[in-house]
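@channel sequence for tomorrow's demo:
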Amino acid sequence: MKKGLIILSLATVFLSSCSGSDDSTDTVNPGPGAVEGSVVQPSIGGPNEPNQIYVDFSSGSSKSIERTAWDLGFYSGSEFRVILNGSLKMAAKKLTTTNIDEVQTPDSGVAVNFGIVSTLGYVDNPNGILTGNGGGEGTAIAEIAANDSDNAVYLVNMGLGISTTTPAVGSANVDGDPRGWRKIRILRSGNDYKLQYAELGATTHEEVIITRKPDYNFTFFSMISKSEVAVEPVKTGWDLNFTTFTNYYPYENQMVLYPFADYTLLNIKGGTRAYEVVMEDINGGEAGYNAFVLANVEDSKFEASALDHRFVTWRTEAGPSTTMSVRTDRFFVLKDAEGNYYKVLFRALKNDAGERGYPVFEYKLLH
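structure tokens (generated this afternoon):
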């Protein structure tokens, strides 16, 4: 399948939208070159969902990266924060040592599954907010301290690769073979990062300086390829990320770790905001979407998304007697970093053969 966006009508479909109101939001002008909208299918690769896709509304473009291409993301913002690749079910546990060359052993409890509670802090908080004091808040790896002696070694479960087994029609199979373990220690290097990493049994380690890139949310690194990897577009150059995802989920009166396929994240660090509009009629989402104009936008509703990038509850959850499907009672309103407003409607998550991993959505510029 071609990477990027498959445009289901034309390469870029210009769709009309209008507003007859004299509300002040009608005076908003689209950013330079903002496309009117499109009907698109992010090419996440079918039911094994091998790709992460970054979609930019204003340009109508996208970027595709294989999920296994990176392991760690080094934050470019004011805090020294490092994230794990949650699309692979990676997990990390802080050790009591600061000696990266000390031999370590795997810990089967450092994993992503229903038996692992969020308060253990083995994964990044799924809301996308990096700040926190551990115990399931903030990042699994504590903020990198200025004092080297305060930065411990972490045991890292590298998660699972990409499955090549085709699941039953209507199901997803995203988990491949285990990717093994690493031990890591991260220090500051001026305004940048110093990453030390090795196999668990090694008594020596690799070391690399990770340079902050202010135009990007993160600098990404692969401990497998031992190199930096270009993953996200520039931080103002994308709005939605289609990916598999490690989430928190309520189970027996506590929050546990649970992996999701067919997930969509909002670029809140780059300034994108959104809210959903739920209709009373179970099939009223499309009618509401068609009728929605710029004058209907409620700017105050965007602020909630600044605290949680799990923006689009656009599909149902599968269960023992139910199959996953698109929620037909809602659409979404999105505001990008340039101040452009869009309405967004999800139309499908399966192809005509009933196979998952083929989402389709439509968006239109409001002006």
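heads up for whoever presents: Helices lie at 285-291.
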